[in-house]
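Reviewers of the previous submission asked for a worked example of the structure-prediction workflow described in the proposal, so we include one complete record here. The input consisted solely of the amino acid sequence. No template or homolog information was supplied to the procedure at any stage.
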Amino acid sequence: MRKRRYQEGDYGHGRWPRERPVWQVAVAVESADDATVRLAFHVPHPLLVTTVMDRLQGTLFEGYALTEDICPAMLNGKCYRSWVADIRRPDLHRLSLAEWLPMVKSMMERRFRVQVTCFENYEKFLNT
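From that input alone, the workflow returned the following C-alpha cells.
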C-alpha cells in the first residue's frame, strides 16, 4: 500500500467555507397610472416573481401578466433581459406605490435566498 502524501482530508491547500449562493435581483417601477402598474425585474428565474405576485393577487391588485422583455442590444454592457409584470387595477388606497417596492423586496428575501435592490429611477435600473 502506498504512503499517503497528505493526511486524510488535507489535500495541501487551504479550504474556504462554502456557503450557498445568493442571487442578485433588481426591481423598479417602469410606469404607473390608475389602471396599470408596470414593475420591471432582473431575476435569474421568473418563478421568483410569480411566487410573490400570486400571493399579492386579489388583495393589492386584480391580476397580473408576466412577460419577458428582451432588448435587441446590450445597454452599456449590462443585462439585456428583464421580466415585466403588468399589474391590472392596483389598489393604491390600501398601499401606496412608494411602499410596493419595499414590500416586494421583503417578501422575496423571506421566501428565497436573494438580495433585492430597489430602484426608484427606471434609468438606473437599466444600468444594473
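The first strand starts at residue 23 and ends at 32. We consider this example representative of the routine output the project will generate in years two and three.
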